[in-house]
Design a protein that fits this description.
With 273 residues, this protein is mainly alpha-helical. It has one domain. Helices cover 71% and strands 4% of the residues. It contains twelve helices and three strands; from the N terminus they run ββααααααααααααβ. Strands 1-2-3 form a three-stranded antiparallel beta sheet. α9 crosses α10. The longest helix has 30 residues.
Length: 273
């Protein structure tokens, strides 16, 4: 085990113990997330329906504006903003474990406590999302010389990869690096922002450390998130109605099992690297 100490001017500084996780731990998180969904099906599925409707509307508007070729790239973009969309679900899971499930006022107050830091993280993810779409557009146009192809000219992403190994290498390489960096930053930072009054930078650093120290379990967790979200998108977003609340609840348990808040540390204590 190791300890992450918040880098703030507030004394005494708070610290979080980083647990060393078993490689199969993500399956336990999925099980606990499913139990949360079964305990609150109306709230969870209603939240999932809103996210699915938003994703479907986004794809529909993209096609309506003759940008159909961008839809495959939007799948990757959705993975970028999905953690932000799940903040309310993480709050529900925290609320269920610590408060009366019927106390909706307490749930709203809980989300409002750290709204500025959550908002800052949201702005960061939205900027990454917008830049990802623009970069995808530029890469597509640079390789295929088709900035605005017709509907009948659009090929599935695997077909484009087979047609151009250069496109596969450049686009795939950028996508993998971006996915790894964003996952390390957001995997635990967003539930931490829901749970603790902490700034977005400290939450990101804590997530980066914890994910790096538990790469076998976190690699499996990342693959499970990507696989389940892809299934949800490929079912014309219908599967997202169940998958998004399931993953949102499970993410809360991933955070609780990995970053454990410790009692305030005396001001003179040394930091653990």
């Amino acid at each position: 085990m190791s300890t992450y100490i918040l880098s703030t001017s507030n004394l005494p500084r708070r610290s979080f113990e980083i647990t060393h996780l078993a490689a199969r731990k993500p399956f336990e998180w999925l099980q606990k997330g499913w139990e949360d969904l079964r305990a609150a099906p109306v709230a969870g599925l209603s939240y999932g329906l809103l996210i699915a409707a938003l994703a479907a509307a986004f794809a529909y508007l993209t096609m309506a504006m003759d940008r159909f070729y961008l839809v495959p790239f939007l799948f990757g973009g959705f993975l970028i903003v999905a953690p932000l969309l799940s903040v309310g679900l993480m709050a529900m899971a925290k609320h269920r474990s610590e408060h009366d499930p019927g106390d909706t006022l307490s749930l709203v107050q809980q989300l409002a406590v750290n709204r500025s830091s959550i908002g800052l993280m949201g702005i960061f993810l939205l900027l990454v999302f917008l830049n990802w779409i623009m970069l995808s557009n530029l890469l597509f146009g640079g390789v295929y010389h088709e900035l605005m192809p017709m509907y009948e000219q659009v090929r599935p992403l695997p077909v484009m990869f087979l047609e151009s190994p250069a496109f596969l290498a450049v686009y795939g390489g950028i996508a993998v690096v971006l996915a790894l960096v964003l996952f390390r930053i957001t995997a635990l930072s967003l539930p931490m922002l829901v749970d603790q009054r902490v700034d977005a930078f400290n939450a990101s650093f804590a997530s980066w450390r914890a994910v790096g120290e538990n790469w076998p379990a976190m690699s499996l967790w990342a693959l499970l998130i990507a696989a389940l979200t892809t299934v949800g998108l490929l079912t014309y977003c219908i599967g997202l109605i169940v998958i998004m609340p399931w993953l949102g609840f499970a993410t809360w348990h991933a955070y609780r099992d990995t970053l454990v808040p410790q009692p305030p540390q005396p001001s003179g204590a040394a930091e653990v690297s």
